[in-house]
Amino acid sequence: MTVTLVGVAVCLVLACAVAVFALIASRIRTLSGRVGSFECAARPAQPADGPWVAGIAQYGAGRLDWWRSWSLAPRPSRSWRRAQFEVVGRVSLAGAGRGDLYLVRCRHLDDDFELTMSPEAYAGLASWLEAAPPSTVIRII
């Protein structure tokens, strides 16, 4: 009798784990399929060797939203308004063996952070910032 209960408990735990994994995979697929979305890892600028968090960013009319990849949260983890968003610098990671990525240093209000993205995603980010209404001042380096 006890062996049967343990077996049922193990099966329930495995079923729950598979369900959570399926939900996360579905969420990633949905976010990736949205118009204006791109893969983008983020971390605070300080400390300089802080951990990267994988995510997906999406352009909106007046903001850039960023979701963590491995989360079930229905809302973005971060949201930056275009009027206060500034690209401070950009470095190719070719020297680090990742020539297909840029390290983009950004500032939103007083918050400095870094993003990694493909060259195509960076071109989209720069275009999105430059397409801001003329009343806002955006600096891109």
Automatic annotation (TrEMBL):
InterPro entries: DUF2550. This is DUF2550 domain-containing protein. It comes from Pengzhenrongella sicca.
